Amino acid sequence: MNFKKQMMRYRLKADQKIGRANKSEVLNDELLQIERRLDHTRSACLPVYKRISQCQLSTGSDLDKRMKKLPETAVAHAMLEASHQLGADSESALQKALKVCGDAQASIAKERAAYEMFVEGHVIEPLHTLVETYIPNIQKLRDRLKKLVLDRDNAHQQWHKAHKAQYTPGVNMQQMSVKADSMKEELEQAQSRMELCKDQLITELYDFLAKEGDYAQHLTDFLDKELEYHKKCVANLEKLKPDLESAKAYARANSSYGTSLADHLHVTEHDIALPIESCITCLLEIGVYEEGLFRIAGGAAKLKKFRALAGAGVADLQAYDAQEDIHAVAGTLKQYLRELPDPLLTLELYNDWIAAASIVNNDDKLREIWSLIDRLPKENKANLGYLMRFCHALSSKQEYNKMSASNIALVLSPNLLWPPNDDITTTMMVSNSVAGIVESIITYVEYFFPDVAEFKVPPLPIQLDKAKGHGRTPSGGSMGDGHGVGPTSPTPVTTPPVQSHGSPSHSRNSSAEANTAQNHQGENTLQRSKKKKAAPAPPSASIPEVGQLRLSPNAHETNQSDKGPAAVKRTSSKRRPPPPPANGSPSVTRRPSAPSQSRPRPVAKKRNKSALEVPLLLELPDMDDENNSSPESPPMPTFPPPLLPPDMS
Which end of the chain is more exposed for a tag (fewer CB within 10 A), N or C? Predict the structure, then answer.
């Protein structure tokens, strides 16, 4: 019977397809539209719920079991275990960081487990029911209705044939009437079944239309729960913020390179950065007399070692064989200055520094530099004054280390100020301008930083290790009072002022003039104030130009205790005219110099020279002599300088 019905359905469908039979439609347009929306909803929601299910990292109704399956729990367990192992010996920055991060990951894992349980119960399961159960059931009901409609149409067709056959001549009327009645009964049963299925389908379609808003609510709840999950995670991290800041501060305290100067000083509770303090302390002890300090590069391996020591906050670099390569210690200091996020002279004042370097009048230039230094942050100003005081002390021994104020400024200025874009071309273009600024600060350090105590330079060591090229021996026996000099509390040395008898000159001094400039002190002192202050008058001490240095006939009568190291006389290459002959002394005649020719010069004959023509040999202090502990020159002679040989005239 079922096979016969199935064959009749196929036959009727074929007839409807080719147009031999009319196709019946029992649903109106509104129900057909709902039916189409049903199909679209299923095709749209199917990938959504599958993707959400893939994001679930755990399953189950037990919160603790779900937490164990989360990767955050595994990370938290590993971090806390590592922190416990490191904390068994002593506290460290890594141990604190692991502890804080482990607690944070554990709290996040707990919140994620609760969030995933909600998503599974209130989002994934309803969507799964909608896509896999509810909509397929409605579609099955629709397919059943289609079959019942075919059965009704087929029954109606059979009844129509039986009814027509009653009026055909030659047939048994009674028999055909019974058959027609039977077909009519089957038609009524088919119609009844179809109407029942149609009512069920209409009910399910409108029920789906009413529940569509509920499923939309599940998706909005998904977003609300996700927002709540993230807020709880943030709240848990906020609770751990004090511990997090403590761990970060502990880490910054042991990592000074590349750290902001203000942050480093805040963490270490120092006024001077630890790398600057430790390097200058070491250089002051054993590097002041080293030739080419800051100019000669140190060994790469030693530089890495001292960088690591200074970055870790080690104060005594001498304990790690700093005397073996003092240039590596100087390179460590330059590297720290270069790796500051903001240079010591600050990028904010970069254009002002470059403009100050172009000022021609030296008094105005010094006033402008004073104003710019006063505008620096207090951390930068304190460290700059500390560094410039040391550079001034280093330049005072330039006759040994060959590092005058100009030389120090030339090699140190690229690490104190650079362009905002850090372009190498721009840096090279402004290098001389920045070097001129730094040289002025070093030369007039008393004017710019009167409140910063002066470093006391250790005396010249007894023996200089020339084989290794170090100006001081590593032993501390010859240091004298220099051992007690620390970077944070240098021994102040009061420099007596010198009366000026000439016109003031404030031009940039040469390396020899820098030694004389350190003995002059300005009359004005800086008044500290939060408001912008006017620059005091530049130092009034007269600093002679290079060409004005002469031998004084009364130099041996000058009190050497009130003066700095005597400047080395610079001999002019031009021949001076001979002095008039003394009474009773034979006059010395000068032969005119013959024009230069290609033929060889004749050998000059020996002749008796007068006392004025005898070359004067000045005996300089021997650097290796143990009795010479002061770099001062002997008294100047009282007679004029010797004449140059005739061949050089």
Answer: N
